[in-house]
Structures are given as structure tokens and as C-alpha cells.
Amino acid sequence: MPRLASDADGTSRPDRSWTNGLALSISAALSAGAGMLSWVLAARFVSPTAVGEVSAFVSGFLLVAGLTEFNLGVALMRWVPTGGRRVAALVGRSLLGATIATAIVAPLYLLLPGTEVIRQAAGGGAPAVAVFVLAAVGWSTLHLLDFIMVAVDKPWWSVARNLLLGSSRITILLLLGAGADATALLWAWVGPIVACAVVFGIAAVVVTVRHGRAAAESSNLPARREVVGFLGPTWVGSLALALLYHQVPLLITFRFGPDVGGRFFIVWQAVAVIDIVATYFVSSLSSTVARNPGRIVTQARRALRRLLALFLPALAIGAVFAGPLLGIFGPQYVELTSALRILLAGAAARLIVVHVLGVRQAIGDATGFARPHIAVAATTLASLAVVPTVAGNVALSAAWVFVGVHIVAAATLLSTQPARVRAIAPQQVPKGKLDA
């Protein structure tokens, strides 16, 4: 039986935090698992240089999609549950706005220095730009759809979408086989993304319209000032998060070339995968807190226990078997075993960072969410831009930067979290209803 939670008005309803968090985590895990298997196949089929070119293209469109999503996914999880009949319009405008922004930013990003490797991976010229824009728009749409489905109580749709997307990509890679060039491999990513964005986008519109028709006539959507006050700072925070995920491997590729960048990208995926899955899990707090604002402290503590129980064993196993795991990609990647172990230690510290900032986002502490993200991303990227390599090992240098930054960040955030929750949370809850 699901636990029952009481809203501020005394209404009892099932606590969806575990179900929503689990569905989002499974969805992200499927995406990550399929992504890792895809890179295993790519590493087996082509050289590290080609892997570096393809990974630069993929990191580039993922970064653009992250920059132009404006944190609308989490915002929709906060506002859709109380949106009433206006839900469909809210979702439609969000999808349209993100699509337009992505289509504008994507070609501009390809004008930046160092992005030649991205255009070359797609064959160069105007067609390469068009493919890049298509991939970025498709991914931005899919990312928003995951959160929309949670907001309308359909979290397992995201799992189905990622299962279809991942299996399609792997099938295409297997059909291409050894000897495929970087441009051909790209379609294993771009084709399924565009197809799933169209199919699941239509499905989301239908589900959202039905949800709106069944909702109450009244709505409790935020005023424009509140929307800007939340989206502005949290978008800056999510922008910093996108830079950390995707600009880090791009920086290594731009600085040291696609061969070194391709090798580093493989070990960096371990951190990115764990972080994305953990972030999805904690993001479900936004939807749960919107429904049950008086139980913020209890929900946050429960989410932390579950987060650590799910991820710490996986990190330990990864550290023990780091060498054999890298050997799956090919013998040329095994030399990065030490770097992978250090990165996994940093990922353990980052779990605390992810949880603390997830709680701040759920309670609407936009500034408290954005500033640490900016500090972490800026410090990491600035350090990687100038840090010398350790005995010529670029990945090892990057790993030490990552673990050092996140140990400091975790300790700092833990010491300040209780005060911020006490200061922000009561503003959302009727007097005497907060469980703190």
C-alpha cells in the first residue's frame, strides 16, 4: 500500500514521491544504460578519434538543449498539478518556447571557436548545421516530455520512451557495424531522437488535454512575476549544470584533440550517467512538494536515504571493477582506470550536492539553487582550462579537479541547508502545517 500524505488542507492522498522518483530514475537509467552500450559499440567499431568527433557532436546538441530548456521541466512539475483547465495551454506554450529558443541558439553555438569538430562529424556545411539543430530540438522536446508526464501522473511513459529510443539506437549501430564513419554513426542518435520526439510529443498533447478536461475549473497558476522569479535563477542553475555535463568533455576535445577527447568522454560518461539519474530521482520532489507542501522535511529526508541506498553501492561496485568495465570499450581505454575511480569518488560527494539543490528547487529557493550550480560549473571549467596534466594524463588531472570541487561543495551545502529550508519553506505552507 502506498503511504498517505496530508495536504495543507488536510486532504489525504498517496505519496507519489517514491513512484515518481523511481519512474524518473528508471527512465534515466535506461537512457544511460542504452547510451553506455551505444558508446561501447561505437568504440568497438571506430577509432578513438572518430569516437571523439561523434561524442563532440552529441555533447554539443545536448548542451544546447540544456541551455534552452529554461528549467521548464521542473517548473511544470510544480505548476501542472494545480493548473486546472489551463494545463494544456501551459504545456503547449512551454514546448513551443523551448523549441523556438533551441532552433535559434543551436546554429549560433556552432559559430564558437573549436566547434569545427562538431560540424566535421556531420559532414560539414549547411547540412551539418541542419542536422545539429534537428537533434537539439528533438532532445529538448524529449527532456520536457519526461517531466510533463510525471506532472500529469503518467511517469511510466518516460520509461517506455527511453526503452524505445535506446533500443532503436542500438539496433541502428549494429546494422551499421564496423567500418562506419562518424557521419553515419551520428544517425543512430539523431534518427531515433527525432522520431520519438514526434510520436511521444503527439501522445503528450493528447494526455495533457484529457488531464485538463478532467481537472477542476479553477486554477492556481503563478503570476508572471513569480514565474520569472523562479525560472530566471533556476534556469541559470540548470545552464550551469548543462555546462558541467557537456562542456567538460567538449573542453577536453577542443584543448587536446578528438583522440584524447574521445577517451576522456568514455570515463566522463560514468559521472554524467550517475548524476543524471540521481538528478531525475530528486527532481520528483518538485511534484510531490507541490501536492503536499507541509511535508517538505520528511519528504527530503526520505529522498536522501533512498538516493544513497540506490547509488552508493553502484559507485562502490564501479570502483572495484573499473578496469574490466573500461576493457569492454577496448584495450586503449583501460589506461584510464585510475581516473575513473577518482571520478566515482567525486560522484559520491556529488550525490549530496544533487540532493541539497534538489530540495532547494522543490521549495522554490531559486537563488539557493542557482548559485552553487554556477560556482561548481565555473570552478570546474576554469580549472580544466588551465590545470597542467598529471604525468601527461589528461583524464587523471580532470578527475582530481572534479573530486576536489565536489568535496568542498558538498561540505559547504550541508552546513547551510537547514537554515535555507527553515527560511524558505514556511512561505509556502499555512501557519502550523510545516513538518519541520
UniProtKB/TrEMBL annotation:
The chain crosses the membrane at residues 21-42, 54-75, 87-109, 129-151, 163-180, 186-207, 227-245, 265-286, 307-326, 338-357, 369-388, 394-414. Keywords: Membrane, Transmembrane, Transmembrane helix. It comes from the Bacteria. Signal peptide: none annotated. This is Polysaccharide biosynthesis protein. The lineage of its organism: Bacteria, Bacillati, Actinomycetota, Actinomycetes, Pseudonocardiales.
